[in-house]
Amino acid sequence: MDVNSVLLDILIVIVAAKIAAEIADRIGFPAVVAEIIAGVLVGPSLLGVVEPNEVLHVLAELGVILLLLEVGLEMDLRDLRSVGRASLLVAVVGVVVPMVTGFGAGIGLGFDGKEALFVGAALTATSVGITARVFGDLRALATVEARTVLGAAVADDVIGLVILTVVTRIVTEGSVSAISITEVTLVAIGFVVIATALALRIAPPLFAGIRRHSRSAGTLVALALGFTLALAELAHAADLAPIIGAFVAGLALARTNSADRVRRELAPVGHLLIPVFFLQIGIDVDLEAFTDGKVLWIAAVLLLVAVAGKLVAAAGMLGRPGDKLLVGIGMIPRGEVGLIFATLGLREGVFGQDVYGALILVVLLTTVLTPPALRWRLLRMRAARRARPVITGAASDALVAVDARGRVAIAGEPMPSQALAVALAAARLAETHAPSDGLLEWLDAFPTGPRPWDEHARAEFWRLLSEGGARSWRLLTASGVLQRALPELDDALAHRLRGGLDLDPLAGLRLSRVIAVREALTTAGGPASSDALMVAALVLDACDDVPVEPVVVARRTVQRLDLGTPVEQSVAGLVNDAGLLAAASKRVDGLAEESVLQLAVHLGSAEQARALCVLTRATFVGDDWERERFDALGHLVLGALAHPELTGRVAANEVEHRKAEACAATSDADVRERILAAPREYALVQTPADLMRHATLCEPTPGRHDVRVAVEPVDGDYRVEVATRDRIGLVASVTRALADAGCNVRLATIVTWGDGTAFSSYLVAEPPPDPDALTARLKELAKARLEARPLPSVVLVFDDHGSPWRTRCTIEAAD
Length: 815
Fold this sequence. Notes:
By secondary structure, this protein is of the alpha+beta class. About 65% of the residues lie in helices and about 5% in strands. It contains 37 helices and 8 strands. Helix 1 (about 5-25) crosses helix 12 (about 260-285) and helix 23 crosses helix 29. Residues about 390-395 and about 500-505 have low confidence and may be disordered.
């Protein structure tokens, strides 16, 4: 196999996948379908620029393993216990009916037992991503119908994977019989149960140890992927589909304290390889088969079975309130899992291109046709619901609470002015309790138009940030409450949700910064005021990796909350500077005095600096030594801010003014650069003319043995200035040379630039030294050994607290 041709194929596939996904996102089309169409386009059916090959098959296999790993990572096993009886019954009916009717239709179409069984199994899958997108676009995710469908999808995923494992093993090993089906089913369920139990016990301590002891940045995510591949191989060894092992690995990794980091660091790999799987499906499609009357007939029959089977699934709602037709329509899309079934069937030789093409056509049609049907039904229901009269009741101090059944219920009909506070309180409680049907119906009819913030609403908002979580934010975004209260924040979260994995509606709402900052604020040493910090964390989480401007969202959010201009400036500063401290700590000169002073001046106050430290520490990624360096930088910045004479606004403005005036006095670019790089303490006590003159003497940068001396009269005295390279004992050498020349020093100024250039200026009485003789003497002393003469009655005072970077030494002695 030619390596160059394989690399070209990979290039074409990746670029085609991304172009297809971008176009699909812009026109509101399912990305999965767009990627399959892109595969058909570049494959042998049309352009023929990519041919099926073993490398692409391997990459596609890795892609589907990553896909199932992400499904497991985003699935909480507790969700299986909380989906409710109605959702579970809808899932079971939605699996059993399509499988039985699909098997019967396959037999009726002349398929053999294996083929008919696999076709029936392929029709059981449900893709929640398409349905969730439509419910989300119409702000109906909080309705009874949406929650039923999404809850059913959780159970549907697990049941579907078990069926896939059972059917794959049956059709590849032997004849279909009751004994073989029972045996394989027990093995599959046994593997899932035992492997999951062991993985859940092993993974948390294992990855806690890896995270604690690893030094390389990529160790954790590499071993997480290795753990996944190991479980995939165990599944294969048990004659089960490897993706079952990947799914189990995801469930286990989701319970570790490294779950968020694994999700975040594996996401780029998934973005590359998962689309390869869907493009590979399109590449394998024989487009001519779609023009075959037999294929179209098979597809028509299977489409009828696929649609009818899921519509019947709504019968599982029994006596629960909600529109059964809407639930049935929401279960129709097949999507990813159906495609996995079809691809495995073709790869294992269970059926040929005709049945494969028919299944692909069914998956595409159910995926494309469902959104308009859902939209039609939802809008009709909403119009009917809002036509009903709204009855408002008296104000109540407890309008929302957890009822006797453990559900969040609304105790009365809130006044319009109370609606926002009640919705926020309900969202906070919804983190740990399921919402009642009555609350969901009230939220679906939530007052339209922007919602003003009052004292009660703000109080509930702070409680939500302190106690809420992904389920809280899901309720607010799904019901449209957040869009009416904080639209810019809601738009950012909507982008984040669209960019995440659609299989889990909570995936994009796990706000890691908010959680980490919340935990940090419970410990000693946090900022005195947490309002600005929590809002900044919320905005950064919402705007993470989405095409919006975080500072704009931050300002508009604070304005809508009506928190005042100081808080707005603080939040905007925190959001704008979110990566500043982390980046500075990783620079070679990050802990140097001038760098720290510039940071301190920029931040302006110790309160803002502490808040930024907490915000940065919440998501700081690095080894232990990098964290120690970051902590050291934070202490230095706070130490610098304790000296307003250096970092205060007055001092900062004065330094900038003097440097600007000094730069204006020269046309030499190098001299200007040195003026701008001058240390702050030095610049604060020099006139612009002095700054310009000193920098001019220091340019060009002195070499190792260079010594430059300038002597000029000043008001009856003489100014002696020396520029050279810094070295140990330099001040002593210059002092010795001046003493040997008979100079009486009245005043001295000494400064060292970051590039090692040392400059000193002395005001001396007559007689003036000869510049050439002083230069020669300084060069001579640079090569001589330094010796200290004994001096009587000398008092030395050392101060280690005056500066974080140096020790100040005060000498008292006779002149």
